[in-house]
UniProtKB/TrEMBL annotation, chain A:
SMART domains: Transket_pyr. GO terms for molecular function: oxidoreductase activity. It comes from Haloplanus aerogenes. Its cofactor is thiamine diphosphate. InterPro entries: THDP-binding, Transketo_C/PFOR_II, Transketolase-like_Pyr-bd, Transketolase_C. CDD domains: TPP_PYR_E1-PDHc-beta_like (cd07036). Residues 6-181 form the Transketolase-like pyrimidine-binding domain. The lineage of its organism: Archaea, Methanobacteriati, Methanobacteriota, Stenosarchaea group, Halobacteria. This is Alpha-ketoacid dehydrogenase subunit beta. The keyword Ribosomal protein does not apply. Keywords: Oxidoreductase, Pyruvate, Thiamine pyrophosphate. Pfam families: Transket_pyr, Transketolase_C. GO terms for biological process: organic acid metabolic process; sulfur compound biosynthetic process.
From TrEMBL, chain B:
Residues 335-349 have a biased composition (Acidic residues). This is Pyruvate dehydrogenase E1 component alpha subunit. Its cofactor is thiamine diphosphate. Coiled coil: none annotated. Pfam families: E1_dh. One of its GO terms (biological process) is pyruvate decarboxylation to acetyl-CoA. Signal peptide: none annotated. Residues 41-317 form the Dehydrogenase E1 component domain. One of its GO terms (molecular function) is pyruvate dehydrogenase (acetyl-transferring) activity. Residues 311-322 have a biased composition (Basic and acidic residues). InterPro entries: DH_E1, PDH_E1_Alpha_Subunit, THDP-binding.
Amino acid sequence: MIDRELTMSRAIVEAIGSEMRENEEVFYMGEDVADYGGIFDSTQGLLEEFGYDRIMDVPISETAYLGAAVGAAQQGMRPIAELMFVDFFGVAMDQIYNQMAKNTYMSGGSVSVPMVMTTAVGGTYSDAAQHSQTLYGTFAHLPGMKVVVPSTAYDAKGLMHNAIRDDDPVVYMYHKRLMGLGWLPAPAGPKTPVPEEDYTIPFGKADVKREGSDVTVVTLGLHVHRALDAAESLADDGVDVEVIDLRTLVPLDRKTVVESVEKTGRLVVVDEDYRSFGLSGEIVSAVADEALDSLEAVERVAMPDVPIPYARELEHEVQPDASDIETAVRNVR
Amino acid sequence: MPSVERLRALYADMVTARYYEERLQEEYLEGKQPAFDISAGPIPGELHLAAGQEAAAVGVCHHLRDDDVVTAPHRPHHVAIAKGIDLKRMTAEIFGRDTGLCSGKGGHMHLFDPDVNFACSGIIAEGCPPAVGAGLAAKKRNTDSVAVAYLGEGAIDQGGFFESLNFAAVHDLPVVFVVEDNDWAISMPQERVTDVESADTRADGFEMDGIRVDHDDAVAVYEAAAEAVGRARDGNGPTILSVQVHRRMGHFMGDPQSYRSDEDQEAALDRDSIERMEAHLRDHGLDDDDLGAVRAEAHQRVDDAIAWAKDQPKPDPDDAYEHVFTNPPSGVTDTEPDFDLAETGGEGE
């Protein structure tokens, strides 16, 4: 029995601190990660223990420092580099997808890039189209990066240990609304018991966050909690929802999803990323490939193909919430 | 030295911008206290205030016409006001209202007013390439309009800035890069991210002119900008104009600034460009009554804008789907197509 609960940010920091203590080659760099402790508390307290050499503030030059992380990783170090908002990927995408993601392949496996790129995703607080995206699909679509999306503090710690130890580039995407920030209240779900000792959660293993027999809801990140809220509400009406948290997109645990749909026959995919050409289509396609006979009905609940609007009424309209999930589940019943 | 009328106009825009920020701060904090919750209150989202940076805005923009283009960064209000943006509709946008400049879609970091050719962006230094493009358009069309890209000193290490400098220089484009040096990029002081003391020296590597204004004196900025804007308007190419300003507040509303010493914050508060401007005006014979009259008019304008904005309708949620394209292609506007395997038994429409 674990008697302490951590916020997701504390769990992430604990894993990073432990890996840095174990391995001199691990270091962290990004904008405002040292004195500030990370705008989203991703490095809170690490400067005091490790100093500026290992918790490095960098110039606002994403191309340079993300590319530098690639270079250091290719020398065998284990950098963690933070892209403050995922929306900023555009200024450095060449280093991310032409170098970080491809060098292992292009070198015929003679080079590896053991780095972690952490980045904040998600909306829900009216920060408009350049600071609110949830670009899961963009990174999962381009080959060569492992893509991790925790939804709870427990998962966040185990996945971070695994990410730092992994010999490949890992994109670790944390949702701002789940971190437990003072200025952006989190739902209750992500704060969980977390063991003090190190542990890893393997990539490619989805977690069934709620078992059910009627409808399978597949989701990740913030929307795990919204799906669980919807499931509780639906349970009152006798609808038994299974909620699958993918936890990683690359590798993707298609097996757990397919087995669940074979049991329930009905699939709802929930994604805060854009609807078209992304995760929701991928999941539906995976189920259609392997369990078409079992599939009686399917719905997708995702961000429509519009940039994220600023005004609260507009963002609320496009941002999938628990009631949207509930409606979708009822539609497939 | 600018004329008395010009000095008075500079001052009017400075006090408008300062009071506007003070009023926005009050409105922003409503409903967010005692525990600061960024997603609560009448003004949603992040808010980056520019108090202390007014001199850089008015000193440059008072050389500009409506057909001159300005791109500003995420801290845009003072520049927007100096460029002559529609204050009421800007305010409505910040409150997320339907009649805002951007129909509630952009918010405070993404304001667009094509009537005065003002735009801003939330991504650091990313206003530089579009300003270069505006300069390119002016040159191709053989007009004498100019483009001004504003950026902070934290953005001068960004790739987009360097590439823009080179492009503007090699094509002799009418662009002025205005670096507002407020000493802080969120928590990072300049000396920890660059070995260059001043942004204007970045010009050296591009065969370009660089000008530094060491203090936030609006008149000094106005005179330096006369040279930079004049050079652009006369077809003699781009300039970097670096202006020392002071960040009186946190990077964003809610920033606890624990990385910043009390002395530094107090020093920023002590050096007030508005007081400096008042001294200029007194040198030109204006008295307290004259200054008070300018301030009163500015405050009234701000109060009117805020009152008007708060009275504006909120957007219709269905409008979230509008404006993805100017010319929406048929077939893609339906973003939520319904399909259900259980219902695909062959019944066509």
